[in-house]
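Rotation project, supervised by the postdoc (A.L.). Task for the rotation student: set up a whole-complex structure prediction and record inputs and outputs verbatim in this book. Inputs entered:
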Amino acid sequence: MTENMILAENILQALAAGLLVGCLYGLMCTGLGMIFGIMRVINFAQGDLMMLGMYSTWYLFTGFGILAFMGAIIGPIVAAILAGPILFVIGYYMHKFLVAQVTGIRVAGSEGEGHYAQLILTLGIALILQNGGLIVFGSEPVSIRTPLSSSAVILGPFWGDFVEVFVNKARLVGAGVSIAVVIVLFLFVTRTRIGKALQAAADNSEAALYMGIDVDRAYHIAFGIGTAVTAIAGGLVATYYPFQPYVGLEFVIVMYAGVVLGGFGSIIGAFWGGMIIGLVQQMSTLVLPIQLQNTAIFVVFLLVIFLRPQGLFGRNVERV
Amino acid sequence: MGGSFTKSLGAFALFAAAYVALVFLAPDEYYQLMLTLVLVWAIMGISWNTLSGYSGLISFGHASFFGLGAYTVVLLQVYYGLTPWLGIPLAGFVGALAGVVIGLPTFRLRGHYFALAMLAYPLALLYIFEWLGFQEVAIPMERENPAAYLQFSDMRAYALIALALLACAFVAVRLIESSRFGMSLLAIKQNELAAEGAGIHTRKWKFYAIAASGAIAGVIGGFYAVILLVVTPPTVFGMLTSAQALIVTLFGGIGTVWGPIIGASILIPLAETLHAELGNVLPGIQGVVFGVAIVGVILIAPEGLFWKVRDLLYRRRGADAGPAYTVSDVPLIGERRHDLSGRTMLEVKGISKAFGGVQAVDDVSFTVPEGSIIGIIGPNGAGKTTLFNLLNGFQKPDKGEVLFEGENIVGLRPSAVCQRGIGRTFQVARPFTRLSVLNNVLVGAYVASADDDTALKHAREAIALVGLEGHEDRIAGGLTNIEQRLLELARALAGQPRLLFLDEILAGLGSSEVNAMIAVILRVSEAGKTILIIEHTMHAMLKLADQFVVLDHGSRVAVGKPSEVVRDPTVIEAYLGKKWANRA
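Outputs recorded:
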């Protein structure tokens, strides 16, 4: 193999990994996009809710017989998807009893329109979930090992007999499921009655209220869905990535970077934002040491909020 | 102000004396260390408060400064043998520098984005320090002369040094609080645009704040390294470091130097004790305590214990704030002579501004003679407020000139425009709600006052001019609508403007209140101020303005005496539609 071939192989390998990880990040970001992009709630606990999604998947898979019943290949996917409804309920009530107390009409006109209260409240929730997780789940990293985690599809060779790309099967399946979930979510929001109510409530809560939409409930549901979607993404990540109760911190910046990059109020935008972050993270390994992978994300994140805070796909006009 | 400063120093002296007693009563090293940690986090909270508590820019990244301070001290000692006695002051310098470097790009952001960007810095630094190979750096033991290297076998020495550091931080922050620095930060917190409009150079003060805040955090981070002995990136750059600074402050009380002290005194011993008692069974109990504390505080007492208690005491003492303002307090002035003969004070030449495809202001020109009252009128959406924003620097026109006393002021910051002698009020009254009436106006007075005594004099004059004497000590948040508008007018006047922009100052007032406000505006005019006023209801303006400039869809459609303008068909069309114009 020549040096060019090695380089080409490395680039293709990073590209493939970036695309697959990007799909999963895209799904996570779509979940946060429902919350941050549509409702404008900063939720610091999103990463930790994702952590709950990972542990839910793990317990469903190992503890509730899904492994025995569905086998090691379909089982984890089913468990990840089932984590969605569980986290929906948690998200719904977390919003109803905590977040809603400091958002919406209740706090209109207070300092910063209640944004600071949200930031700090969700930070508190994040601390409780992280450290409560430590108490309940322990600090030992766990992972959902399946036959897929350690096997790969080999693409190529692309250049003579060389330049082959290994694609981890667990990531491949995860990416496929991610795309399916995003499509279902998109159809739900744009085609169903309740989805349209959510959009109306997000667009102009006051007008929606006058049109007879229960805006409070719509917000609880949107928060629940956002949580559930991120939790499913977490469950899928868990099939190839070992995790512990602090894992949320690693992903919370990824998610915000993706959502900001994608622009507000757009589900598809958030997905592409996450995709770009995934690509940046994986491609950065070509030029940066592996420990600085996440630093690359922070740099991109900072660049985006400095240069284009309205996102690549969004528009934002400030009024004096 | 001087009185309350001495009083708080006295209170601090009492606190310090009690604390020293506590340190010497503590049964063993464990409790002495805990007492030291309380002070460390109180100081860290004060650092956070200096930026976020006063200016309202919420930082989730104070671990950056703390961690850089810690590594400055430990690396200097490991590689250059420098004693922490010198390393800690240097750490303060590094913290201040880091503050300025981080502030340079980050102050362009507001609200959510500022908080998120600040979160990213310490996490990035964490990875960078790990990558640099500083996973675990230990302070070398100095056996020869330990005291010269800030190493004591008696734990109490550290507690006393921490107390001395707290005293320094306390005095520094009290000085900031009671000066124009602190007032400016409070104004920025309440409303950055209003502050800028009141002549406060917001960017400059924010840099001072982040530098001061970074310095305090750097110093205490350096000190923490000394008592910790081993520095690792997660302990100093970790999320919990930033969170703890914020939590002790919010719990105790945001925006007051006592907040972090109260918060740390309660939360740190609580968390440490629980950790010691239950740490084996419940490993994350500290974090849970902090989480629960902050969730509880934000739901029950969103500004912290200090303010909650103060509000309760204040309410119990009842309304000792003096009588409410009544409309009849304002003496009416007779009919106004329409005089447009003064020299030209403001000349607007062909000013335009488009947002996307919408031409908000289109080639508007007019002049404002000295001593006149000019009314800019037009229906909703005519571009009036945009025009104001262009005139005093909140937005930059696409083309055109604004000449104030012959000087082109296009491109100046709003605070610079204000310094030139143009004051403004906002469409939505934005008092600084936690401040008294006097302090609200004082914030506006700083721009034109070299020293604080002059500022106080200007503030009192402005309050007298709008008729709010006797209300100086009331808290602005409790004022009625007209009082808030008068307050805002006084705040603008206190900056000694020669030209005053009033943006819909009559909006939302009842008819008797409108008359009172008109009387006040006339009195301000009598006092020699030139006034440019925006209003969309025309009839109140008939009594007030010497000349109307009528806008519609961003263009100037008429200029003239009020009595002429109201008969102008184009004006009637703009307000009422074509049908009515034809009948007129």
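Student's summary: DSSP finds 24 helices and twelve strands in chain B.
Supervisor addendum: The mean pLDDT of chain B is 85.
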